[in-house]
Amino acid sequence: MKEVKINTEIIKLDAFLKWCGIASMGTEAKIYISDEQIKVNGEVCTQRGKKLKINDIVSFDGEDYKIV
């Protein structure tokens, strides 16, 4: 599991995907989310604006990213 440090209390899912390097652009993040390739805390998430917080776990392509 990779740990990703954020500098704020919350971060939106699409911004997090760019922050941690899963997506290089917002449109790429949007595609991953709408194609149901992203899980948040074990559940598929289709909300680009989903607010993530410390200890949430985002999963993509067999990798887990824990927000710290």
From TrEMBL:
Q: Which Pfam families match?
A: S4_2 (PF13275)
Annotated CDD domains: S4
Arranged from A to Z, the UniProt key words for this protein are:
RNA-binding
Q: InterPro entries per the record? A: S4_RNA-bd_sf
Superkingdom of origin organism: Bacteria
Know the name of this protein?
Answer: RNA-binding S4 domain-containing protein
Species per Swiss-Prot/TrEMBL record: Clostridium cibarium
